[in-house]
Amino acid sequence: MKALEGIRIIDLTQAYSGPFCTMHLADHGAEIIKIERPGIGDQSRTWGPIKNNYSAYYAFLNRNKKSISLDLGTSQGKEIFLKLAEDADVVCENFKVGTMEKLGLGYDVVKEINPRIVYASISGFGINGPMAKLPAYDIIAQAMSGLMTITGFPDNPPTKVGPSVGDNYTGTYLALGIMMALYHRELTGEGQRLDVSMVDTLFSILENAVVQYTVAGEIPGRNGNADPGIAPFDAFMAKDGMIVMGVGTNVMWKKLCNIMGRPDLFEDPRYLNNDARCRNYLPDLKDDVESFTRTKTKEELEVLLNEAGIPFGRIFTVAEAAKHPQLQAREMLIEVDDPVLGKIKIQGVPIKLHSTPGSVQQPAPMLGEHTTEILLQMGYSRDEIKNLHDRNIV
Amino acid sequence: MKALEGIRIIDLTQAYSGPFCTMHLADHGAEIIKIERPGIGDQSRTWGPIKNNYSAYYAFLNRNKKSISLDLGTSQGKEIFLKLAEDADVVCENFKVGTMEKLGLGYDVVKEINPRIVYASISGFGINGPMAKLPAYDIIAQAMSGLMTITGFPDNPPTKVGPSVGDNYTGTYLALGIMMALYHRELTGEGQRLDVSMVDTLFSILENAVVQYTVAGEIPGRNGNADPGIAPFDAFMAKDGMIVMGVGTNVMWKKLCNIMGRPDLFEDPRYLNNDARCRNYLPDLKDDVESFTRTKTKEELEVLLNEAGIPFGRIFTVAEAAKHPQLQAREMLIEVDDPVLGKIKIQGVPIKLHSTPGSVQQPAPMLGEHTTEILLQMGYSRDEIKNLHDRNIV
């Protein structure tokens, strides 16, 4: 049994943010009925990498879900959606703010027919405020939240996080909000609306950068790979490439001095405590540490630092990470048998519930793969379904 | 009423990852009893920015929580912890793997006295696998997950995300896992163990970079601020600084060509569709777009692109984001009256539940502020509490 079995989610989301939300819930057993436009489908069906004329992007993100094609612009399409929503636990959407209301499918309409519904929305800026109705992509949220100005190197421009964290983090917040609302509903019987925004999300994860401004009066900048508050805590060159390490305590610092064959540095007034080490990090301390690390290979450093209990890491490419025994042991790269792509390897389930483990049991659905099954369940006859199909409503 | 009222969480976490998890749950009404070492407390109590000899880091992260000081190394300390766990819904911890078992407070012990408990752990690498027992900091997970090699500019080294996303994202996953386990428990009466790891978490958010390797056979690299699959979708220089924009469709591209006064570009074979625009992005398309954006101010571009419905963003410093009317309208910067720091502004609640809104009602607790209150509730007398205090057990 999985934790969320019995929960039914009508999923109108597409692209990355909303589908990442419902991926988490699907992995743990919720039934996700993905509504896609007839003949077109989720826009991510065209996103790379493409193989056999099919999207591996769509494939990794939509595992464990069902797909029904439905044109929400038609009155019969709306009717089918509302019938689905009548029995559902959750409706999810990531249209531009106001679109669901324009379609006549807003929260007010759905709660009339199902007061227990949890109606969950993602947008770029949130459903209220002066920018609510503007379109946004991930990069807009990364820029506007302040995140880009505190990522990267001081002598480089503001820097975007590689993967679209504005999308996936907001999707994760939506999943968390949905679970909170469902928990509350179990106790009270009451559904509700919730919304999350990409800019709010990224602003909420800026760590102490916000109080650095509001309390200390400083505008945080870019520190490259170094931590501004702990030293040495950075990326360093080894003989054969780059590694990272973090020396978080005086005890670790003493061990590092010994490993480096420089016990004198532990007595050095420039490095007496973490404060002093931060003040004298550039160029002194960084040079002292790197003049040691440059003499050792990554593997030699790994052995030495692991033995001393000093947090150490290789900087892996995505390929190296995917193949690593630790990620393998955690089942973070799993195989799914996709009907078009064949056996492909995709990310596994990161939230490990030990008694009710999540898993990937089904590949992503073909467009409209479950339309007939679901409409039959709802009481439509095969003739009616054929008729709807012929008119491009499903 | 808040969504999670009535949930009691015994919170052994410290630093950033675990406390970020319980911050979300506290904001939505769960009672968080933070267990801190007598006289020392959470290690983040020493983290900057510091004002009035007190940590603004601790203050923003631990709002809405209660603090009890307790030495888990003593037999009476363990006894008090187990009594608390007997009635609690959740135990949270982010010690090094194996520490709770060594203390005699592992899941097996706690579930004996409370089979309904949800026992939730965060670690660097996960509780199983060859690296399980190694220490980790955020930068280690950013390096080992592959994230650093796909963030930053191609001619720069691998780049860490500024804020510690390895910590806060893993904390958010833990919160989501806890809510899934609590939902399941409401239906079945059964608690369970769960764990999340920092490396798993960051690997799970690499978007299509994983299938780019496993399906397309390419090892993803760094693309700076440009999206490798959509163009133009990047940061560009304006007359007075840098902006971002994303042109996601041919319709938007046509509008941009008109805004640029270059309708010829829409017919240009190099830019006929998104595929062609991606292939000819560097240097041709980027130069063509930037030779226009350089002639306009950020404000002029904002007006032009907003009118055309093309996603546009300013690149804000943390200060500019914090003061922005959109984030203000969303209550993402709120004031809390801290007993030591006075009135300070901190990040608000990003998950907006409309009927049961989360909020910040209490500042972060002083070390052990609620020890007496909670021990009295548990049935200890004032004399017993004084005795425990004198012996540094609480």
Structure description:
The structure is a homodimer of 394-residue chains. The first copy, chain A, has 2 domains: 8-205 and 326-390, Rossmann fold (3-Layer(aba) Sandwich), CATH 3.40.50; 233-316, 2-Layer Sandwich (formyl-coa transferase, domain 3), CATH 3.30.1540.10. Chain A contains 18 helices and 14 strands. The first copy, chain A, has helices at residues 17-27, 56-61, 75-87, 99-102, 107-113, 138-144, 165-188, 198-204, 209-214, 250-259, 263-267, 274-279, 281-293, 298-308, 318-323, 325-329, 371-377, 382-390; strands at 8-11, 31-36, 50-51, 54-55, 66-69, 90-93, 118-123, 192-197, 233-238, 241-246, 312-314, 333-338, 342-347, 352-353. In chain A, strands 5-2-1-6-7-8 form a 6-stranded parallel sheet, with helices on both faces. Chain A has a 3-stranded antiparallel sheet with strand order 9-10-11, with helices on one face. In chain A, strand 12 and strand 13 (342-347) form a beta hairpin. The two termini of chain A are 32 Å apart. Chains A and B meet through helix 2, helix 6, helix 7, strand 8 and helix 8 of A and helix 2, helix 6, helix 7, strand 8 and helix 8 of B. Strand 8 (192-197) of chain A pairs antiparallel with strand 14 of chain B, so a sheet runs across the interface.
